[in-house]
Amino acid sequence: TPADDYQVKEWKVNTEVITDNTELTYTIENLDADATVTVEFETIPATTYAVTFSVVDENGTIAATVDGTAIESGDEVVEGSEEVFTATPADDYQVKEWKVNTEVITDNTELTYTIENLDADATVTVEFEAIPATTYAVTFSVVGTNGTIAATVDGVAIESGAEVEEGSDIVFTATPADEYEVKEWMLDGDIVVGNTSNELTISDLQGVSEVTVEFKVIVGIETSSLSNFTAYPNPFTNTMTIDNVGNASRVIFINLIGQQVKVVNLTDSNSAEISTDDLLSGVYLVTIVDNQGQKAVRKMIKR
Q: How far apart are CA 155 and CA 170, in angstroms?
């Protein structure tokens, strides 16, 4: 009768090993001499299972321990043991999935996976994937009208509201309408001080961003050819006369909210009478433009 966790190793009769018998009983069927019978016990060997582990398509490593002791892939491990597998992703990678014997372990993208009570051979794999880039929404628009705005990331155009990768540089380009220029840029509700150029850059994007640009009427420096330009009467009603226009090519009427409401092309005459009965009552910036693009402006009121 073996003790717990022991079994019969061998029987002997008069020092002769009884082969092929490790049963719990031995029988002498026809005793014909003195007999000395001994039995020897041995520990019952533990049941073991092969445990293999590997990485699918690289991008990291995998290691395993049994009761805190490291093992190699393919080692035999005692039944009932606890195996802890640890994944170490390469930079910018994360665990995509674990599998045991080709079966995906659902809801586990952690760096470790544990077999708590080994009861069969086990093949464990881990697969890694690139960590998705962090992105932020970037919106951009024009306040009012009188021009357009566009944006590029690394030279590629994007639409307002696009998701842009963290750390990117974004270049915004404003295109004013004729007779307009950039009044101001705003970034996330704050005026970008000191920038009235046609370009704004966000370097190293770190969050959701909103960009707006606003345009204003260009008030040009009067050249000598336009310095004597006059417009009357002021206030005017249904007609306006302009004199001393020199080589001017057109007259532009702009209201106080920056809208271009009327354009009159001029002839070679030094003066002209312009019908204004199509204009609403209000204040206008009357801009005269010569053949070289130089401008002069007068503030006029229509009754």
A: 9
